[in-house]
Design goal:
Radius of gyration: 20 Å
Number of strands: 12
Strand order of the largest sheet: 2-1-3-12-11-4-5-10-8-9
Number of helices: 11
Order of helices and strands: EHEHHEHEEEEHEHEHEHEEHHH
Strand content: 15-25%
Bound molecules: nicotinamide-adenine-dinucleotide
Distance between the termini: 21 Å
Largest sheet: 10 strands, mixed
Helix content: 25-40%
Length: 335
């Protein structure tokens, strides 16, 4: 039976990298069918809103979406569509793999293979208690961490380790200073860890983690952390392995999951056919894992690596002169 996926082609380079990705998925024979819906600028032009109800309904129905980047118009009244999607579907786990690939402009062309699991619904980014005094001299913000929120994200990280044969989970925190919030997260992480005795658990303070990541990234396997630390660390990890063109991400909840590239709609190169499709392709590989096709996910990742190794049709950001579709065809020929 074919699995139906909601597809959002998005803005800027979105349609180009989505065409490329669907071409490779076709070559994989993953048995998917697609329901295309709109979001972002395209949706605003066609339907008068950035995130139409039909789009939300489609994601709810199918439970899985593959999404290209969306442009959030600059100006009053437009909040991020990505944040809106996260809230609407309670997508609590932001899962961002960072893996070394050959022939990229990375400081670590080998040795890095880690996943950051970031809590997506609590902590410093929820905007609760944001205030600034009338004289503009004092600003405040409330951070809320809950046992429930901490438990489900740490459990997610350990279950992911189990499912993918990974060996170690590192809880990243600042419990020495943020004794209540980060302290609760760490306490819950320790408790959950006892239920996964076969997986090594360790804890690391966030500032030390940043230094360790830059000096010895190979020591990490899965990192689990709260919202703000996860945001920073996952971008740091993307930088370790060659930047935005190779960084995928998944936003996962109980009833829905959305897979995407980490980068934006790249208006500076939109329409030129030179965008690197790898980040969205790697997002598609995460999606294949999620829907129970790990072998196809692995075939896809191996084909990407082989194409990079051969320097076949690489796009300009990787030092080549290839096109988005040319690169995709080179990958498709290796799946
Ligand atoms: P961006 O990621 O779009 O671009 C940053 C730089 O990286 C640009 O020079 C761009 O050309 C390059 N780049 C990005 N992706 C690339 C690719 N696949 N291949 C080659 N080069 C690539 O960031 P930005 O310019 O700050 O944002 C542009 C728009 O994207 C904004 O409207 C922003 O809101 C939106 N955005 C959306 C998402 C999302 O939907 N997930 C994420 C980030 C930004």
């Amino acid at each position: 039976m074919t699995k139906k996926i909601t597809v959002i082609r998005g803005d800027g380079i979105g349609p180009e990298i989505m065409d490329a990705t669907l071409h490779v998925l076709e070559a994989l024979g993953a048995g998917l069918s697609y329901e295309e819906v709109d979001a972002g600028l395209v949706a605003l032009e066609k339907h008068g809103e950035l995130l139409p109800q039909a789009t939300l309904d489609s994601i709810r129905r199918n439970g899985v979406a593959l999404k290209s980047p969306l442009t959030t118009p600059v100006g009053e009244g437009f909040s991020s569509i990505n944040v809106a999607l996260r809230r609407h579907f309670d997508l609590y786990a932001n899962v961002r793999p960072a893996k070394s690939f050959p022939n990229t402009r990375s400081r670590f062309p080998s040795g890095v293979d880690l996943i950051t699991v970031r809590e997506n619904t609590e902590g410093a980014y929820i905007g609760e208690g944001q205030a600034i005094s009338e004289d503009g001299e004092v600003a405040t913000l409330t951070q809320k961490i809950t046992r429930k929120g901490s438990e489900r994200i740490v459990r997610y990280a350990f279950d992911l380790a189990r499912a993918t044969g990974r060996k170690k989970v590192t809880a990243v925190h600042k419990a020495n200073i943020l004794k209540t919030t980060s302290g609760l997260f760490l306490k819950v992480a320790r408790e959950v860890a006892t239920q996964y005795p076969e997986i090594e658990f360790n804890e690391m303070i966030v500032d030390n983690t940043c230094m360790q990541l830059v000096m010895r990234p190979e020591q990490f396997d899965i990192i689990v952390t709260t919202n703000l630390f996860g945001d920073i660390i996952s971008d740091l990890c993307a930088g370790l392995v060659g930047g935005l063109g190779l960084a995928p991400g998944a936003n996962i909840g109980k009833d829905a999951a959305i897979f995407e590239a980490v980068h934006g709609s790249a208006p500076d190169i939109a329409g030129k056919g030179i965008a690197n499709p790898c980040a969205l392709l790697l997002g598609a590989a995460q999606m294949l894992d999620h829907i129970g096709q790990p072998q196809n996910a692995e075939r896809l990742r191996k084909a990407i690596i082989a194409t990079l190794e051969a320097r076949d049709s690489l796009t300009p950001d990787l030092g080549g002169t290839g096109t988005t579709m040319g690169f995709a065809k080179a990958i498709a020929s290796r799946v």
